[in-house]
């Protein structure tokens, strides 16, 4: 290590620059250096002038405290001290002497820092010491003004050269130069001195952390923490032909095989490795991997042709997988082989069930011959644990997995520490003390954290300062939990509005939604360039450069449509951690989940149709075709040309079949009429011959009898038709009720009941119908009303006794509804991004809104005019609410702060900081004397705005807080958390009272009823739950929403609870009133019409005839 030293000083091992040491923490016996003459800030300014990046250094300069004469006792303005400061930031040029002597003091004036000479007597002694034969140091920096003729003569006698600093450095760098040099520094040459002595800071080396990408074989040198599992897998592989690595998403399954197992195998001997992902055609991907190993230099056109040929033979079983692997032994007679199938769950998510089973059979068939080949071929696969259920459905595979699996659980703390620290140490980068511990604390007990950890470390690497990872940089990136989400959100916000719209379309097309009933989560999906427009692909390139997407570029244009993935560029989400970790992405998926699940089925149907050469039987028929026709009409922009062609071909086939059927019926009818005509002619002739005499006599009576018979028959047929129509409507109502189509069920019920009022039906049928109608209304009576607006709802507010409702949407709009009439009053654009919060003023006609666009706004709801607009936070405003006295309001931001504002002119009254993460919710006690804030850091802070102080901080049991609410009397506080729990707190002693468990996901909203006896909670699991505050018992579970519920509001009486959901609906739930046990048909009709009225008035898809179905019923009861 190079030191800047004083002459005639005994140096300690840790003390550089004589008595000065540049380090982060002082060794024992040292304290931070303080100036004797000038302000230390001036010295730092001088150092900053010499090395501009010095300001980024976290190190300080310490001085030795000993007063022994062995240590120099000069002041801290000396040149050595200044160079020590610069040495904090820059390394000394390689090749310079180990110890560099220096003297001189720093003078400060209007022109900046200058080097000033020292006293002649002191300098003479130092120069003589440097020139003595006992001293082996070779470079002495001195002020030019100190050099006199006698000093030049003294140096000449000792054969020591005196040179300006730049020439001196050049001499020292020459090979073979061993002499001493006295280097002179002019009083204004401090900057030149820094450039001569110090190297510029080197740019950071390439990051050893992989971000969201899996470690590959070439990254093995930086792969740490999974050594135990690597050893376990290798041991398992020695004795088994197949090993399945099973773990949660984000547990590092791919990395442990690529960077752990495969490099070890290569070191053990001659191993050849085929690796692939199943994707949309496992046979094709296997064929491509096989050719990459056996024919790596083949021309691209030939390669595509061979892949197509091998795929076809493997699929029609003219070439078995066993025979293909035998071919490997012929080509590499002395090698052993590993067939590694990564992300094996794609076999289930991207392929038909039959293809999955056929491919599994082919794999398992190879296992017995593998043993006969002395196990020279091994099969390794990785699979997400949530797809294990699908794998176990195939019994032969289930039997093998019982003994051939390795479950990859979370890494232990010591393993994570190695994964964090060892890659940095390999690159010579220091990790600030305490940083690793803070990272470990933030990911403790968090499932699937490895991708988020690697991403955070890669961002930390980019912000390193002089080969040092710091706590300050870690906080700047938002820590492990927020780094990815913050980065993705920041990248998204840099896009223009049209790009943001297209980004949503692109990201949702790259997701294969999971099925909640099967317990499978959302997975990423690879899409081809053919599915995107050119402007969308340009945006994809932009997002790929930002490392949110990854493209797989392949060349070749001769492949057919079936081989498009092989011949075209593909794109997918960089990692599934982005799906679960980026809030906006999750909201997009939840909002489109129904369509995405259906669209995935359509792609599978299209694939079958193409594979079967457009056979008619593979087209869509019946309900699937009706659904496709409906989705195509609603969302035409979401369909590729091939999908449109597939649906249109299905529609043409259906229409042709209908025409053929109608033609057949017409022909049959004509034949029947012709036969009937001939028979009638013959009958009339016979009748005329037999009854000619009697015909005239009875003609009048016969005509009357026939007319009456026709009338009776027509009445009977009409009665039967009406009765069958009524029965069909009743059955339809029951089915719709079971499928949760409540409005459709009630509408069908009303139509059936109206028919029943006009015809004579049996008592048994009437009672059965009344029973069905009673069941339907009993089921739907809790849902007082439903408003379907098709915009995801994020915020609600209610006033005027529950008559006026305000709703805020994801698109930044606010809607005002008159709930008494079920009528939309106004709809206006309020924010440039999602409306995250709404609150009505206690007395004035004002509505307070907060948004993701950083703004808080106040609106006059009578005039719809903007009264006040403030950029309240430099990030999303998560909540804003009026104070009970109406004179001020508070806001909470994503940046972790709570702000108090005056309503008059929007003056800022106070800023309150204390959370380490975003403040997701705030609540003001009804008396206005206390404000609480909850954060994703898991803490609840009680604020006293009058004293500008936080009273106390409560831990929410390590679960992030998402929602808060005071009871009407202000004695209780409820909190909703990320872990799905609702907790109740005592306001008086700040103690946790009880926990209500029932939600399976995040609780995004909690609200007390006006009487304080019940508590409502809602969240991402789509349910709303009503709890007894007294005993914590779940009173009601309200279901009907199909996406996350983000907002709740009670009516003033507390009998109606209003909910807003990401599914675009607002629902009113009747909590305290039910139907009588028995009702007449007319009473059921009236109750049904009353319930369905808002639906008929607001739903744009209702026909004109259905919209007036209740008109005569309502007039009758009026």
TrEMBL record:
Keywords: Coiled coil, Repeat, WD repeat. Residues 686-713 form a coiled coil. Residues 208-615 form the Novel STAND NTPase domain. WD repeats lie at residues 793-827, 828-869, 870-911, 912-953, 954-995, 996-1037, 1038-1074. InterPro entries: Beta-prop_WDR90_4th (IPR055440), nSTAND1 (IPR049052), P-loop_NTPase (IPR027417), SKI8 (IPR051510), WD40/YVTN_repeat-like_dom_sf (IPR015943), WD40_PAC1 (IPR020472), WD40_repeat_CS (IPR019775), WD40_repeat_dom_sf (IPR036322). SUPFAM superfamilies: P-loop containing nucleoside triphosphate hydrolases, WD40 repeat-like. One of its GO terms (cellular component) is protein-containing complex. CDD domains: WD40 (cd00200). This is Uncharacterized protein. The lineage of its organism: Bacteria, candidate division KSB3.
């Amino acid at each position: 290590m190079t030191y800047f030293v004083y002459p005639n000083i005994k140096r300690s091992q840790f003390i550089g620059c004589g008595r000065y040491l540049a380090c982060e923490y002082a060794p024992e016996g040292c304290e931070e250096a303080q100036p004797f003459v000038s302000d230390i800030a001036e010295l730092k300014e001088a150092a900053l002038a010499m090395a501009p990046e010095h300001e980024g250094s976290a190190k300080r300069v310490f001085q030795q405290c000993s007063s022994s004469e062995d240590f120099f006792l000069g002041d801290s303005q000396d040149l050595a001290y200044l160079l020590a400061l610069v040495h904090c930031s820059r390394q000394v040029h390689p090749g310079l002497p180990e110890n560099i002597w220096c003297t001189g003091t720093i003078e400060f004036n209007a022109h900046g820092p200058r080097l000033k000479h020292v006293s002649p007597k002191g300098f003479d002694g130092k120069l003589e010491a440097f020139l003595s034969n006992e001293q082996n140091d070779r470079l002495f920096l001195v002020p030019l003004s100190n050099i006199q003729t006698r000093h030049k003569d003294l140096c000449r006698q000792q054969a020591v050269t005196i040179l300006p600093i730049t020439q001196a450095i050049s001499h020292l760098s020459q090979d073979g130069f061993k002499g001493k040099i006295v280097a002179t520094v002019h009083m204004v040459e401090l900057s030149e001195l820094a450039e001569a002595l110090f190297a510029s800071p080197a740019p950071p080396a390439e990051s050893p952390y992989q971000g969201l990408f899996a470690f590959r074989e070439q990254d093995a040198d930086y792969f740490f923490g999974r050594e135990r599992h690597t050893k376990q897998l290798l041991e398992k592989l020695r004795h088994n032909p197949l090993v399945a690595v099973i773990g949660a998403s984000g547990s590092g399954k791919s990395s442990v095989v690529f960077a752990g197992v495969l490099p070890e195998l290569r070191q053990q001997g001659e191993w050849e490795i085929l690796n692939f992902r199943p994707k949309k055609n496992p046979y094709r991907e296997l064929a491509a991997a096989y050719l990459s190993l056996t024919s790596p230099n083949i021309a691209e056109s030939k390669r595509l042709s061979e892949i197509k040929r091998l795929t076809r033979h493997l699929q029609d079983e003219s070439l078995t997988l066993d025979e293909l692997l035998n071919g490997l032994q012929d080509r590499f007679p002395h090698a052993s082989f590993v067939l590694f199938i990564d992300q094996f769950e794609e076999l289930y998510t991207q392929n038909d069930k039959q293809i999955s089973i056929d491919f599994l059979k082919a794999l398992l068939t190879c296992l017995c011959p593998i043993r006969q080949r002395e196990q020279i071929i091994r099969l390794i696969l990785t699979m997400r644990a949530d797809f294990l259920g699908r794998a176990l459905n195939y019994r032969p595979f289930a039997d093998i997995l019982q003994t051939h699996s390795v479950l990859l659980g979370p890494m232990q703390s010591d393993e994570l520490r190695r994964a964090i620290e060892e890659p940095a140490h390999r690159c010579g980068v220091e990790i600030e003390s305490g940083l690793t511990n803070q990272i470990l604390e933030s990911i403790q007990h968090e499932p699937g954290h490895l991708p988020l950890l690697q991403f955070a470390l890669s961002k930390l690497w980019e912000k390193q300062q002089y080969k040092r990872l710091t706590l300050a940089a870690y906080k700047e990136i938002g820590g492990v939990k927020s780094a990815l989400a913050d980065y993705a959100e920041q990248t998204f916000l840099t896009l223009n509005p049209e790009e943001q719209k297209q980004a949503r379309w692109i990201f949702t097309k790259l997701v294969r939604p999971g099925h909640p009933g099967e317990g499978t989560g959302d997975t990423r999906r690879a899409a081809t360039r053919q599915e995107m427009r050119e402007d969308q692909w340009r945006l994809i390139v932009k997002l790929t450069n930002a490392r949110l997407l990854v493209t797989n570029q392949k060349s070749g244009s001769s492949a057919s449509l079936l081989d498009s993935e092989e011949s075209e560029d593909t794109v997918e989400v960089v990692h599934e951690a982005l799906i679960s970790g980026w809030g906006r992405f999750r909201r997009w998926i939840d909002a489109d989940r129904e369509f995405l699940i259906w669209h995935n089925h359509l792609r599978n149907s299209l694939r079958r149709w193409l594979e079967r050469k457009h056979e008619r039987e593979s087209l869509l028929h019946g309900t699937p075709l009706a659904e496709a026709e409906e989705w195509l009409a609603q969302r035409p922009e979401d369909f590729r040309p091939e999908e449109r062609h597939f649906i249109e071909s299905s529609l043409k086939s259906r229409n042709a079949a209908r025409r053929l059927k109608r033609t057949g019926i017409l022909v049959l009818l004509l034949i029947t009429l012709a036969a009937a005509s001939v028979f009638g002619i013959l009958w009339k002739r016979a009748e005329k011959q037999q009854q000619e005499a009697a015909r005239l006599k009875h003609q009048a009576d016969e005509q009357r009898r026939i007319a009456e018979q026709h009338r009776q028959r027509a009445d009977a047929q009409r009665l039967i038709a009406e009765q069958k129509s009524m029965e069909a409507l009743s059955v339809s109502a029951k089915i719709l009720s079971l499928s949760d189509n409540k409005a459709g069920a009630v509408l069908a019920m009303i139509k059936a009941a109206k028919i029943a009022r006009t015809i004579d039906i049996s008592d048994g049928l009437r009672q059965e119908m009344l029973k069905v109608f009673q069941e339907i209304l009993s089921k739907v009576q809790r849902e007082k009303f439903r408003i379907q607006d098709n915009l995801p709802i994020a915020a609600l507010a209610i006033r005027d006794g529950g008559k006026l409702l305000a709703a805020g949407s994801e698109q930044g709009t606010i809607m005002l509804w008159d709930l008494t009439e079920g009528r939309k009053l106004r709809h206006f654009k309020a924010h440039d991004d999602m409306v995250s919060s709404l609150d009505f003023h206690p007395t004035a006609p004002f509505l307070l809104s907060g948004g993701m666009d950083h703004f808080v706004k106040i609106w006059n709801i009578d005039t719809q005019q903007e009264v006040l607009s403030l950029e309240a936070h430099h990030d999303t405003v998560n909540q804003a609410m009026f104070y009970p006295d109406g004179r001020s309001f508070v806001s909470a931001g994503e940046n972790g702060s709570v702000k108090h504002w005056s309503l008059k002119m929007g003056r800022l009254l106070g800023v309150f900081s204390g959370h380490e993460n975003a403040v997701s919710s705030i609540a003001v006690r009804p008396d206005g004397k206390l404000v609480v804030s909850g954060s994703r850091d898991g803490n609840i802070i009680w604020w006293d705005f009058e004293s500008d102080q936080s009273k106390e901080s409560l831990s929410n049991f390590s679960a992030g807080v998402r929602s808060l609410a005071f009871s009407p009397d202000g004695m209780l506080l409820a909190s909703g958390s990320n872990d799905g729990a609702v907790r109740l707190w005592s306001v008086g002693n700040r103690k946790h009272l009880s926990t209500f468990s029932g939600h399976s996901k995040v609780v995004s909203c909690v609200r007390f009823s006006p009487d304080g006896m019940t508590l409502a909670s809602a969240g991402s699991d789509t349910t709303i739950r009503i709890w007894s505050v007294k005993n914590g018992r779940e009173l009601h579970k309200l279901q009907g929403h199909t996406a996350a519920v983000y907002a709740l509001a009670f009516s003033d009486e507390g009998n109606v609870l209003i909910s807003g959901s990401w599914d675009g609906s607002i629902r009113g739930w009747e909590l305290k009133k039910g139907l009588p046990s028995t009702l007449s048909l007319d009473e059921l009709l009236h109750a049904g019409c009353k319930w369905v009225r808002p639906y008929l008035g607001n739903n744009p898809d209702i026909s004109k005839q259905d919209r007036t179905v209740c008109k005569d019923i309502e007039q009758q009861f009026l």
